[in-house]
Amino acid sequence: MSGNGPLVAIRNVVKRFGSIVAVNNVSLDVQQGEFFALLGPSGCGKTTLLRMLAGFETPDSGEILLEGEDLVGVKPWKRPVNMMFQSYALFPHMTVYNNVAYGLREDRLDKQEIDRRVREVLEMVGLLGLARRKPDTLSGGQKQRVALARAIVKQPKVLLLDEPLAALDRKLRVEMRLELKRLQHEVGIAFIFVTHDQEEALTMADRAAVMNAGQVLQVGTPQELYELPTSLFVANFIGESNVFTGSLKVAGDDVTVVGAERAWRVSAEASRRVGLKDGDAVAIVIRPEHLQIIPAASGQETNGLSNTATGMLIETAYLGSMRHYIVELDDGTRVMAQTQAGHIFDSLTEGTRVSVGWELERGVLVPADDEALIEGAGLSGAL
Amino acid sequence: MKKFTQQLVLLGPGLAWLVVFLVIPLVLILSYSFFRRGPYGGVVYEFTLKNYKQLFSPLVLRVFLTSLRIAVITTGLALLIGYPTAYAIATAAPQWRTTLLGLVALPFWTSYLIRTYAWIVLLNREGVINHFLMRLGIIHEPLGLLYNEFAIIIGLLYGYLPFMILPLYSSIERLNPELREAAADLGAPPLKTFFTVTLPLTLQGVIAGSIFVFVPSLGNFVVPELLGGGRRLMIGNLIQNRFLKARDWPSGAAMAFGVMSIVLILLLLQAWATNRLQEGGANAE
Amino acid sequence: MRSKFLKRVRALDVHLVLVYLFLYGPIVMLIVLSFNELGLPTAWGGFSLKWYGELARNTALLNAGINSLIVAGGSTLVSAVIGTLLAIGLERAVRSTLLDAFVFVPMIIPDIVLAIALLSFYSLLKMRLGLYSIMLSHIVFNIAFVAAIVRTRLSYFDPSLEEASMDLGATQIKTFLKITLPLILPGIMAGALLAFTISFDEFVIAFFTAGPGQPTLPIQIYSMVRFGVTPDVNALSTIILFISITSILVAQRLSGMRGVL
Q: Would you kindly state where each structural domain of chain C is located, as residue ranges?
């Protein structure tokens, strides 16, 4: 039955709560053994989608296929899918051991088999010594491991994780990212996890789906999402970006974006990638690390750069391994550049006149629909 | 010193009141229960265990057992009816919960005697229920619904059901709904989830609600008097009788301490169970 | 799946509706009967206010009502003050589970036991029984109820508010009057309302500690209903219901005290 089709296939799934469309016609494939992220701001529908996979919500329409078989209508306790809950949902009246054994007992395995598998999985997460403890006596990180052990011990076809790291403090969260990745590798089960933290999604996931307002905007590897966003929303949501808007002007291979003050050049390839045509409202996205900054007084060439503008450095921020610069261009727009610490411009002071510019192929072109612009304004407000 | 003055002002009046009007009177009847009854009522200060021995006489023992049986059945029914009610309210849409809960508590603010009286109107031979059943031709002779154990249990249940629902509600509502989902996710069908997760984790509410129903049911004398017609005597009626009619205070006092000891045992059991449940949560290796 | 889920909810909801029917059916029945000209539970003789008129002429019942107001009012006033102090003391000054348990006793002790204990106590002191003896008795459990409700309120209260006030130069007493008291006032009101209702409705202890010829309302009702159905009690119950439900709703509106119901 499974063949070489996707492990999980979500087809045109719609879910409404009253008048709110939580999930709006979503289709997705997740492959065998994949670490897949559902990424988006709160309220984007990612958790609803996850809960439909677990069986706690039923789609109003559409299909959810697991190895080609429709899961819609299969009760949560009959699905070969397990979930790690955001609150971990460890049963407080049971020991760690009994928590982990709970699902196996439901499977009516014999005692020795249960014991063997519980010990094996506790060993794997490094908690064998705490088997007799009650969840309330564990630290956050330990609870998280128990929740994980409890969900993977049943060897589900897919493991669902709802904001798996949200309850941990920052340092632990970063450690657990690697730990989760290692475990996923070890057990070979496909993981689908929900997160609002783009950094988490980029570091852990093999592929991620970026969602907003109930829809999937883009699916891809972290690198694709970061380097080649197909919408302004994705560009703004993942990483930081500088955005210049205007209308597209195509004259053969000579492509420009005509803005209010001036026009910017873009590569012909960039315009072809997202299928934009002459006259479309577009935005150029340039990542801060691709925006080069050159002090006017240094006399350095800006020749290698396809688009340049002059302005004044108004703020620098030291972030340890790197440094951020905020430049106010002469037309009043503010842009952000980023360099590795130890760069030769480290000593630049605020108030210095600078030129900024980027290489032609660094400018990524996306459609500039108004809605995304408004969303984007909120997100790049971090600048 | 300053601290002591503050404590005295805050706690003094309340604790003094409780000592004078609760502790001393209780100690007083405790001592009465070891004395003899005077020839014309009153108390003769002469030590005896007769009043306690008399608790085990067939008559008193039977009344105690009847009261216990009625209180146990009432509590059991209240739990069976109250748990699904509390569950339904706790899992209703959040904006409805306060109202639904308020509706459970509201009858409590009306006269308890009148609520009991309503059942006389409903259950008596010429009452509403008999009338309708005869009208519908289901029965031809009125049923003796009133003045029996059934009527007492209905009356107690009616009076104390809210006491069961309220603590149950708060323990169910506190329960993280993800726990039930986790059980389902791990393969437990709804009934199994209920017995392995929901019920054990709301046991404190079950115990508290049961005590709130059991204790006032056990010592009740209004409901058996009005709905039991005095024929089915409960221990409350017997105590009242000894105190106000037979004027045998020492024996009434001993019975009261019989009731008190049952209540005390229950409260100790509750404390022990609560402790165990909480320890369960915080038992370090 | 969806329909099954709905079915389960519906079974619970049906149960809920049946419970409300059980709780309110008898009450609604009394209200309807109070307007029945015939005064019979089984035959409708037309709408009438006759039994309300009857009630207005029943001086014994009216006097009993006034007695109950006096008892409930007096015991509420005293227990609101003492209970509030006790609550603050238990929450802030002394933390002791033993004291907590002690204050809890009047709420859980069977009323008949407290009733005979107080009767014995009063007669040992050769006290003449009357409204005030009922009042003194009711204060015992009312203190406990007021203290319990005010404590709940206090436990939600951020103690740093008091510290801020003292930091800004207010004395302890001034802090209490200007910060603590206004913030726990809804709790005190709720506690007082509860105390008043319980006291007004309390039968067993009042029955044992009342003086001759001075019955409270529950005692009067008891003597009316113990021998069967009396139609003017229907009218009385309608009035009591109306008063208590309006006062609850008004109290809730006024102070947003949600813990009461």
A: 68-260
Percent of chain A with pLDDT over 70: 91
> What's the gap in Å between the CA of A189 and the closest CA on chain C?
26
Check residue A245 and give its pLDDT: 84
Question: Which comes out higher in pLDDT, residue A319 or A222?
Answer: A222
Question: Could A85 and B178 be called an inter-chain contact, meaning their C-beta atoms sit closer than 8 Å?
Answer: yes
| Inside any domain, residue A1 | no
Q: Is the dihedral of CA A304, A309, A311, A314 positive or negative?
A: negative
Contact A150 B186 (CB under 8 A): yes
Q: Is the pLDDT of residue A381 over 50?
A: no
CB contact under 8 A, B282 and A137: yes
Q: Chain C residues with CB inside 8 Å of B87's CB?
A: 12
ipTM value for the complex: 0.85
Sites in chain B below the pLDDT cut of 50: 1, 281-285
Write the CB contacts of A157 (distance below 8 Å, at least 6 apart in sequence). A7, A66, A67, A80, A81, A189, A190
Does the CB of A164 have a partner CB in chain B at under 8 Å? no
Phi first, then psi, for residue B126 (nearest 5°) are -100, 20
Option in A78, A87, A132 nearest B178 (CB):
A87
How many CA atoms lie less than 13 Å away from C39 in the CB half-sphere? 15
Of chain C, the end-to-end C-alpha distance in Å amounts to: 36
Model confidence pLDDT, tens digit, residues A254-274: 788 887 777 888 887 777 777
- Which of C193, C195, C197 is CA-nearest to residue C252? C193
Residues A283 and A212 occupy one common structural domain: no
pLDDT of amino acid B213: 93
Query: Which CATH number does C68-260 carry?
Result: 1.10.3720.10
Q: What are phi and psi of B53, to 5 degrees?
A: -60, -40
A194 is a domain residue: yes
Integer CA distances (angstroms), C227 to A379, B120, B128, B227, C223, in order: 77, 10, 17, 11, 8
**pLDDT tens digit sequence for B44-82:** 788 888 888 888 888 888 889 989 999 999 999 999 999
